[in-house]
UniProtKB/TrEMBL annotation:
Residues 310-330 are annotated as: Disordered. The keyword Manganese does not apply. Keywords: Acyltransferase, Transferase. The keyword Aminoacyl-tRNA synthetase does not apply. Residues 13-212 form the Glycine N-acyltransferase N-terminal domain. Its EC number is 2.3.1.-. It is an enzyme of class 2 (transferase). Residues 214-292 form the Glycine N-acyltransferase C-terminal domain. This is Glycine N-acyltransferase-like protein. GO terms for cellular component: mitochondrion. Belongs to the glycine N-acyltransferase family. Pfam families: Gly_acyl_tr_C (PF08444), Gly_acyl_tr_N (PF06021). InterPro entries: Acyl_CoA_acyltransferase (IPR016181), Glycine_N-acyltransferase (IPR010313), Glycine_N-acyltransferase_C (IPR013652), Glycine_N-acyltransferase_N (IPR015938).
Length: 330
């Protein structure tokens, strides 16, 4: 297996998975970003070539330089054969078990059970095993002018994309839509339930600088509602300031991001903490549908990670480093 493990032309993997992206949506979104400039510095690995039964994405060594940073040291896995999955995840060249990391498994795949067996045999601390519902926005209807959209444009024209009416909402008077600025990173960290550590600020800056984002700014230029996109092309860290909830602000924010993602050919999806029913209801009203199956997120941290001061995984009631917190029901 070591001889077969390799990086590969991501365009070929992307084409192979494009036929059924819902069953592999996180790997699919990651590979799309790798194929479009690779802003997060990720690698795509397969078990064999040219025919493959498993795809794994992981950060390059230059990116995963901090052995305690499980935010940046992010892996995704999708497989078609259980034995192949076990072999690839157990390969020391695939995952560095001396580092803290997280791995995200696909819906309709029982990969979490196999991964837990591997964790048990190697005995590092498994800090988190969390099932999360995943929601996806149905593909939009394109207007005749959509042929003019440049799929590689950083800011495609939202008017060319027809979304559910719930997302077609203009900001209230005095508010304006804009990308999130790096100057907002501290506000985002301070309002994030996983933000009480240095890793989260570094991670949020990565997302703000290299991936699409949207926020509503008040007349003073302060964000009051926002959402980011992560390296897996998922909506993440959706949040509305408490004093501005109940005013349907996520409609405009999610609508702006959905238009950009769909115009570039990306799926629009997110995941929610399992008991966060207000967020589930909000997203469903915006046109999202819950995918069948369960998406799993696992975090592994060797003992030296405990040297960090009280962090999100130690203090949060519902830890999920990449899931963020969607705005409360509007």
């Amino acid at each position: 297996l070591d001889d077969l493990l390799r990086s590969l032309p991501t365009l070929i993997v992307y084409d192979s998975m494009r036929a059924s992206p819902r069953g592999s949506v996180k790997v699919y979104g990651t590979v799309m970003y790798v194929n479009r400039g690779n802003p997060a510095g990720l690698e795509v690995l397969v078990d064999s070539w040219p025919e493959f039964k498993m795809v794994l994405t992981r950060p390059c060594r230059e990116v995963a330089w901090d052995p305690t940073d499980f935010f940046t040291n992010l892996h995704t896995a999708f497989y078609r054969d259980e034995g192949t999955c076990r072999a690839l995840l157990g390969n020391s060249r695939t995952i560095n078990w001396d580092q803290a990391f997280q791995i995200q498994g696909e819906p309709l795949q029982p990969s979490v059970l196999m991964f837990l067996c591997l964790v048990s045999s190697r005995s590092p601390p498994l800090d988190l095993s969390l099932p999360l519902p995943m929601l996806i926005l149905s593909p939009p209807t394109l207007t005749p002018s959509s042929s003019q959209v440049n799929p590689l444009s950083a800011h495609p024209t939202p008017s060319c994309v027809s979304h559910p009416p719930a997302l077609c909402c203009r900001p209230e008077k005095g508010l304006r839509l804009a990308p999130v600025s790096p100057t907002h990173a501290m506000l985002l960290r301070d309002t994030w339930m996983f933000g009480e550590n240095s890793w989260s600020l570094r991670y949020l800056n990565l997302l703000i600088r290299h991936f699409p984002s949207a926020c509503l700014l008040d007349p003073e230029g302060t964000p009051i509602s926002w959402s980011l996109i992560d390296p897996l092309a998922a909506l993440t860290h959706g949040y509305t300031l408490p004093e501005h909830r109940g005013q349907h602000h996520p409609r405009a924010v999610v609508g702006m991001l959905a238009a950009q993602l769909h115009a570039c050919g990306f799926p629009v999806y997110t995941r929610v903490l399992p008991h966060n029913e207000p967020s589930l209801h909000t997203l469903q009203r915006l046109g999202f549908h819950i995918l069948p199956g369960v998406f799993y997120l696992l975090v592994v941290r060797p003992g030296f990670a405990q040297s960090q001061p009280a962090n999100a995984l130690d203090s949060a009631q519902d830890p999920a480093p990449s899931s963020g917190e969607m705005p409360r029901a509007q």
